[in-house]
Amino acid sequence: MPDVRPAGVTVRLYLVFMSLARPLIRWILYRRLLRGKEHPDRWREKLGFATQSRPSGKLIWLHAVGLGEVMALRGIIEKLSRLDANLSFLVTSSTRQSAEVFAKNLPPKTVHQFLPIDAPPYVRRFLTHWTPNLAVWSEQDLWPGLAYHTDQQSIPQALINARMNQAAYSGRKLVRPVYADLLRRFFLISAQDDQTAELIKSLGALGDVRVDGSIKPLAKAVTTDIEDHAQLNAATQDRFVWLVAPSHPEDEAIAFATHQRLVKRDPAALLVVVPRYVDRGQAIVQTAKQMGFHVTQRTREQVINAHTQIYVADTLGEVGYWYGRARLCLLGGSFSAIEGHNPWEAVQLGCAVTHGPRVANFARDYSMLDALGGAIRVSDADALLAVIAQDRAADITRSQGQAVDQMTKAFDKLAQSLYAAIE
Hints:
By secondary structure, this protein is an alpha/beta fold. The protein folds into two domains: 9-220, Rossmann fold, CATH 3.40.50; 229-406, Glycogen Phosphorylase B (Rossmann fold, 3-Layer(aba) Sandwich). 45% of the residues lie in helices and 15% in strands. Strands 3-2-1-4-5-6-7 form a seven-stranded parallel sheet, with helices on both faces. A seven-stranded parallel sheet has the order 10-11-9-8-12-13-14, sandwiched between helices. Helix 14 (344-348) links the parallel strand 12 and strand 13 (352-355). Helix 3 crosses helix 4 (96-103) and helix 3 (67-83) packs across helix 17 (393-420). The longest helix has 28 residues, at 393-420. The chain is globular and about 70 Å long. The N and C termini lie close together (11 Å).
């Protein structure tokens, strides 16, 4: 059993504030429900009311905030299940989209609930029902009340897949006593990279912070919910299809400049744009048309035809289909302050990865992929066109398998360390 630590002054003040704020919390939650931002049948989970029974036996609770982070948990769940087939898992997240997509990709012996809002009565209600044997937090979504009350029940806690850049650290440093209180309640902290490990230590973590990398290579490709895949397959048959996703304006500028030259070499070439924010679809269409492209748009129910040069796939839940369909992808966020998006979903679906120079969010991942030939860094449209013209996609995808094997084997020790806490 872990040592139970009392709350520091700042955390005690936080707990009092959150307890007094319950009327406001319920009002905000109700407003979100009316606007469709909360699940109509499950919103009370955020008040700690469970909508499913606790599985019998040992239960591991894992939490991540959003869709990508939650989907990544499937890989570590699989490794823990291999250590003990009798384990059950509770996964919590905060967003409605994460719950809906995760439900379609649910691992065996796993249930999902929304994370309770961090007020003491809601947290105690949640913990009393689920009584997990181990709590595993992923990435950056840490809550003082939940960590404190979990610790008070002598439930061991671990932080995995931690990621923090300098900007995030600067914000957290302002409330360092809270983070120091939180971090000292974890028996294990695993960071994605060396910078994160050092910043976590600076916030007050005790002992070593191990560096294991991102857990995202562990997770299998997601199930896509595209219903018209047969029509899309037929419309893109015998065409060179490439992709920019999840895209931002800076990525699209590089992709459009590349495609202008590519269609002169291959008039049938098709560029698919999957924007990071789907409400940008119309703006992307306008920009592409101004550059002289023939464009069709998903949300306007326009179908790909022989004249389509750019297809704007601006609906949720289809990026997985296009990773699997496209020959090559320009990973978005890598030409701007976004500093890159996760490359592993594309890798898992066999899409050759190229990316720009700005990938600080996944620096270790891209460094490994680049070193093994599983991704290629490009600086501009000329470099990207050269990769396409030289038909390097097949070589890239062959090398990606080696990168995945190398990353996944590294997490066997992490899974064993987590499991040791409940043996």
